[in-house]
Task: inverse folding
């Protein structure tokens, strides 16, 4: 086993807030850490108090969505090592899942899903962690009931995620963000800057993949996770389409024309088709379909298209067309 370990220096940089930013009150574990260390958050960030910080454990309570979350941290100062329990944020419901971290395990990226205005909670979280002493990637996924808006977040090259902030209500977590920490030292064998950038490119596949060892492992896991989700969403979409067609009084073909027009608009980024879409909507609204029903149908088509594109990119870029 490689003895390489990382020391993480809190640098004060915050990730964007991911989730329904209009819902919930602000929460920040750095306030709790500062209190435990007998200082305030501003001094904690500016006075070089923390020499090393990383997550020891994450407790997540979940059911249909993420009910609540609690992070536990290991914090090292000049003269002492602390184990600090962040506050439990959110509600009191849900089943508890505990993610235990190894001594040198760090969060490299987070992805998930959250609801729109209909409920606005975090529905799913996936932590992509790295253990440098083992050169091993670990994926930890917590899922709720809903398949909603997707998000991905990754820190800058040469950093990892160290401390949680976000938003919550009295019964759920609505937003997640993380403070970044800079990697201070690692062995010469691990070319941190280059490989972390490549790993980030892999997790968010808008860039070419160049890191074959970790690439194959994670891409295959992502494919195996995404493929059944695409199949399920396609079944739901087809059922929704069929149900709406039964209400059109013989104008099923107009539903097909509407969906074909939107698909063409998405494919070619063609705003000129908007007039055609509006015309089909008016016809269908005159046949007992509501504006909300049509908007839900088109939104589901867009979401399915995005999922299918992500799956296709994995197949094309990685040659995983036959992956099961």
Result:
């Amino acid at each position: 086993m490689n003895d390489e370990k990382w020391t993480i220096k809190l640098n004060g940089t915050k990730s964007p807030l991911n989730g329904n930013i209009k819902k919930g009150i602000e929460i920040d574990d750095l306030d709790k850490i500062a209190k435990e260390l007998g200082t305030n958050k501003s001094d904690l960030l500016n006075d070089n108090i923390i020499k090393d910080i990383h997550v020891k454990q994450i407790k997540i309570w979940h059911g249909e969505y993420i009910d609540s979350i609690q992070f536990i941290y290991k914090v090292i100062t000049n003269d002492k090592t602390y184990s600090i329990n962040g506050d439990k944020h959110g509600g009191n419901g849900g089943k508890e899942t505990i993610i235990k971290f190894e001594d040198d395990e760090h969060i490299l990226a987070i992805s998930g899903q959250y609801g729109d205005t209909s409920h606005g909670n975090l529905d799913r979280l996936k932590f992509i962690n790295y253990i440098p002493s083992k050169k091993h990637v670990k994926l930890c996924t917590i899922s709720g009931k809903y398949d909603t808006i997707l998000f991905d977040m990754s820190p800058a090259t040469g950093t990892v995620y160290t401390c949680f902030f976000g938003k919550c209500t009295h019964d759920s977590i609505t937003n997640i963000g993380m403070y970044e920490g800079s990697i201070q030292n690692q062995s010469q064998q691990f070319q941190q800057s280059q490989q972390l950038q490549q790993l980030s490119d892999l997790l968010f596949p808008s860039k070419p993949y160049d890191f074959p060892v970790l690439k194959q492992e994670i891409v295959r896991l992502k494919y195996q996770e995404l493929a059944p989700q695409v199949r399920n969403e396609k079944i739901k979409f087809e059922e929704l389409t069929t149900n709406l067609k039964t209400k059109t009084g013989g104008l099923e073909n107009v539903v097909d024309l509407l969906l074909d027009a939107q698909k063409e608009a998405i494919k070619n980024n063609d705003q000129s088709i908007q007039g055609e879409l509006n015309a089909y909507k008016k016809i269908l609204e005159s046949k007992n379909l509501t504006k909300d029903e049509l908007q839900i149908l088109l939104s589901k088509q867009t979401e399915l298209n995005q999922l299918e594109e992500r799956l296709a990119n994995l197949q094309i870029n990685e040659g995983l067309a036959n992956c099961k």
